[in-house]
Design brief:
Length: 156
């Protein structure tokens, strides 16, 4: 097993980066995604929410451009998910000021009233590709008192 460290995102774009990483890792090899991630990040405009939210996830030219990007994992559903999640992030920003404020408010609500407020893992499921298991990954990060979490993955 290899020990990894995951830092809490410090910006909304970093949050989209983290969600997108999780989407790409699901049903894929973690080490391959991690190795290709710098190139994938570049292809997706450093996960700039405003740029990505303007794209059409069903536009074949847009998807083909991503497919041709160096290092891209060529999975149409995952690429579309990044764009769809960027749109969801932009919507949350309009409603709450920022994604990090939205998460902080949800965390506060849960701590004040755990029986009535949704758990963080439930709010994270608004993002495409974030399900019951992967939402707990994000929840553990944001519920931690530290600025990071550590976890282990198989070394293959």
């Amino acid at each position: 097993m290899v020990k990894k460290r995951w830092d809490k995102p410090k910006s909304d774009n970093a949050f989209l980066n983290d969600v997108s990483f999780i989407v790409f890792v699901v049903r894929f090899n973690y080490n391959v995604v991690e190795k290709k991630w710098p190139e994938i990040t570049k292809a997706f405009h450093n996960f700039d929410i405003q740029k990505l939210a303007k794209l059409d996830e069903n536009d074949e030219k847009t998807l083909e451009k991503f497919m041709r990007a160096p290092g891209m994992i060529k999975n149409k559903w995952k690429m579309q998910s990044v764009i769809i999640n960027a749109k969801k992030c932009a919507e949350i920003q309009r409603e709450h000021g920022s994604i990090l404020k939205w998460v902080a408010q949800a965390k506060k609500n849960y701590k004040e009233s755990p029986l009535l407020a949704p758990e963080l893992r439930d709010i994270f499921r608004v993002f495409r590709g974030i399900g019951p298991m992967t939402s707990t990954w994000l929840e553990s990060l944001f519920m931690s008192d530290k600025s990071y979490v550590e976890y282990e993955i198989p070394d293959k």
